Amino acid sequence: MQHQGNESAAGDGHRTIPRPTPAEFRKLVSGPQENIIRAMDVSQPVFEEIKKILRNQAVMMLDCERFIHEQVPDIWAIYLDWAREELASFLSKYTDAQWPVELYIEHYLSKKTYAKRHAFRAKITKLRPAPNTVRVKSSASERGASLPPAPGGPPPPYEDHDFVQPHAANDDNVTVENFLKTVNPDISHFLTAFEELGISSEADLVVVRSWASGVRKDFFKRELMGKMSALQIQALNIKLGEMN
To answer: Biased-composition ranges for Pro residues (predicted)?
Structure first.
């Protein structure tokens, strides 16, 4: 059943509203809802009605805990086809009848996904074990020793410096990547997906390791099933259980 909005359609002789430029579109996605209402040139009541229709269907068809670029392409295409048909009367006032749907849904999914992942990272941080403090006793002679004199002369040539390799600048990522390489089959190519979940250090792995096996498996199935196979998720869960 098509939505019969109160907004004027292009067929009634009124102007059509063009698609925002890419830069404007990005600002609208990350900005407040009021900006989207102005860009769509609709009243607040009409927008709320359209929003409700789009969100109700999104919950049934899309993964509302993932960004728009993480949706299954075929399902996203089906959703857009449904929206164009369901809201044909309303969307006829736009030059590109698809952009209002894309704009609102990307805005909605971004806010929802960011909030969920931020909450997860906050929980992970709270559950991280406190670092052990190591106290080192120094001898009386060491306590009384003065600092060595500053080196004189120019600095050594560049080739004598110990440069930090790019991968060594973030040992946490290397640790997680190395762990993923130990899973059979190797799943280190999913490192970015783990970072997006807030699992970016050995401490994060320890926290996830502390969960019950069933909880871990359910979590990874919910978060990674669209990217990883059931076999890879099972192998990951087993490897986490083997962590010391």
So the answer is: 148-157
Using CA atoms, how far apart are residues 15 and 81, in angstroms rounded to an integer?
24
Cβ–Cβ < 8 Å for 15, 7: no
Are residues 2 and 97 in contact, defined by beta-carbon separation less than 8 angstroms? no
CA distances from 12 to 85, 97, 140 (A): 19, 16, 93
| Backbone dihedral angles phi then psi of residue 128, each to the nearest 5 degrees | -65, 140
Backbone torsion region of residue 41, taken as left when φ is above 0, otherwise alpha when ψ lies between -120 and 50, otherwise beta: left
Domain residue ranges in the chain: 17-124, 168-241
DSSP 8-class letter at 98: T
CA nearest 175: which of 148, 152, 206? 206
Residue in 191, 198, 184 with CA at minimum distance from that of residue 122: 198
**Peptide bond preceding 185: is omega within 30 degrees of 0, i.e. cis?**
yes
Q: Which of the 8 DSSP states describes residue 17? A: B
Instruction: Dump pLDDT digits (tens) for 39-95.
Output: 999 999 999 999 999 999 999 999 888 888 888 999 999 999 999 999 999 999 998
Among residues 80, 34, 36, the alpha carbon closest in space to that of 57 is found at 80
Token look-up 């809201």 returns 87
Residue 176: CB atoms within 10 Å: 21
Stated pTM of the model: 0.47
Nearest 5°: phi and psi at 17? Answer: -100, 120
